């Protein structure tokens, strides 16, 4: 069963309180090399059958409209299992 | 006058919203997220809570509930819809209101009696306030930071669609101190603080007059009753 991976991150210009809290904890525990952390989400989606163009189009729609909220987040990558980096494709929408 | 209050899995303040409707003089109608039936109500409230455990994003999964199809249709026809806290997050996720809500900038849940300034006193849910009036109602959220891009914020402010602004303290990092907004028509309003928790003496915020005597939230509900009766 093919697995498709969708990565979603908070928009770079927005404050990411989760990442900031993680960075603070790392610094407090002596990891002074860390200057910043941003935290996002990774979705692993399994589908039946071959990942053809119709599947790719539907997954891109799901990623843009449901898995992310374009007001606060960006879909930064979709890996369809063939190492395709789809950042350029997802920004078309 | 019948006001529907929709219960989602994880709603917390649905009973409080029903009680507020009753105290304001209307009949509350309990509605269920899994239904497609608004049961002929005249107005709708999406209550606070943690629907679906805030999974994916706050309000995101609830905004895809069966009943939301009818909520969006009713809102677009002009039915008054109020989203409180998690309900505000659902309205944003359903694109009935602009902007989004993210984790509080300080990273902690916050619960306090919050002073707000009523910026727009002409919506269906604020008509009984005076523009510029300051009110105090409880606020309790972990993800109440209102954000939008500068263009959207400028448009919201220019069109008078900022309904409420935080006064004295910005409790969650909301841009431009925005606590609540309205759609262009003024029938859909969302805010993070909780008017339904300030509707009955003895159970509201403290005031200068007496402990727990604050009832500033009641006028949200009397506003929509007056508007609906006036339109009938």
From TrEMBL, chain A:
Part of the FGAM synthase complex composed of 1 PurL, 1 PurQ and 2 PurS subunits. It is an enzyme of class 6 (ligase). SUPFAM superfamilies: PurS-like (SSF82697). Its EC number is 6.3.5.3. It is found in: Cytoplasm. The lineage of its organism: Bacteria, Bacillati, Actinomycetota, Actinomycetes, Micrococcales. HAMAP family: PurS. This is Phosphoribosylformylglycinamidine synthase subunit PurS. Pathway: Purine metabolism; IMP biosynthesis via de novo pathway; 5-amino-1-(5-phospho-D-ribosyl)imidazole from N(2)-formyl-N(1)-(5-phospho-D-ribosyl)glycinamide: step 1/2.
TrEMBL record, chain B:
The keyword Cytoplasm applies. HAMAP family: PurQ (MF_00421). Keywords: ATP-binding, Cytoplasm, Glutamine amidotransferase, Hydrolase, Ligase, Nucleotide-binding, Purine biosynthesis. The active site is at residues 85, 194, 196. Part of the phosphoribosylformylglycinamidine synthase complex involved in the purines biosynthetic pathway. Catalyzes the ATP-dependent conversion of formylglycinamide ribonucleotide (FGAR) and glutamine to yield formylglycinamidine ribonucleotide (FGAM) and glutamate. The FGAM synthase complex is composed of three subunits. PurQ produces an ammonia molecule by converting glutamine to glutamate. PurL transfers the ammonia molecule to FGAR to form FGAM in an ATP-dependent manner. It is found in: Cytoplasm. It catalyses: L-glutamine + H2O = L-glutamate + NH4(+); N(2)-formyl-N(1)-(5-phospho-beta-D-ribosyl)glycinamide + L-glutamine + ATP + H2O = 2-formamido-N(1)-(5-O-phospho-beta-D-ribosyl)acetamidine + L-glutamate + ADP + phosphate + H(+). It holds the Pfam family GATase_5. This is Phosphoribosylformylglycinamidine synthase subunit PurQ. SUPFAM superfamilies: Class I glutamine amidotransferase-like. SMART domains: GATase_5. Its EC number is 6.3.5.3, 3.5.1.2.
């Amino acid at each position: 069963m093919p697995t498709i991976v969708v990565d979603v991150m908070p928009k770079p210009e927005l404050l990411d309180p989760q990442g900031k809290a993680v960075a603070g904890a790392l610094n407090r525990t002596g990891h002074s090399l860390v200057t910043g952390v941003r935290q996002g989400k990774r979705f692993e989606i399994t589908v039946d059958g071959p990942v053809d163009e119709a599947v790719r189009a539907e997954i891109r729609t799901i990623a843009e409209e449901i898995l992310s909220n374009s007001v606060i987040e960006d879909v930064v990558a979709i890996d369809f299992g063939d190492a395709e980096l789809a950042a350029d494709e997802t920004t078309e929408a | 006058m019948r006001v529907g209050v929709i219960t989602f899995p994880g709603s917390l303040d649905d009973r409080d919203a029903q009680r507020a409707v009753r105290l304001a003089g209307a009949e509350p109608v309990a509605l269920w997220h899994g239904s497609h039936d608004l049961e002929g109500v005249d107005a709708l409230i999406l209550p606070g809570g943690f629907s679906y455990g805030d999974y994916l994003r706050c309000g995101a999964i609830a905004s895809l509930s069966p009943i939301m199809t009818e909520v969006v249709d009713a809102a677009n026809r002009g039915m008054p819809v109020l989203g409180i806290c998690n309900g505000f997050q659902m309205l944003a996720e359903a694109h009935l209101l602009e902007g989004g809500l993210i984790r509080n900038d300080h990273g902690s849940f916050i619960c306090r009696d919050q002073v707000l300034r009523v910026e727009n006193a002409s919506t269906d849910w604020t008509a009984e306030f005076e523009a510029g009036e300051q009110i105090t109602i409880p606020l309790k959220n972990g993800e109440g930071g209102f954000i939008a891009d500068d263009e959207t914020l400028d448009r919201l402010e220019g069109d008078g669609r900022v309904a409420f602004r935080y006064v004295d303290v910005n409790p969650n990092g909301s841009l431009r101190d925005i606590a609540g907004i309205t759609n262009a028509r003024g029938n859909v309003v969302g805010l993070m603080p909780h008017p339904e928790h300030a509707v009955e003496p003895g159970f509201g915020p403290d005031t200068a007059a007496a402990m727990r005597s604050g009832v500033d939230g009641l006028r949200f509900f009397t506003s929509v009753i007056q508007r609906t009766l006036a339109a009938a």
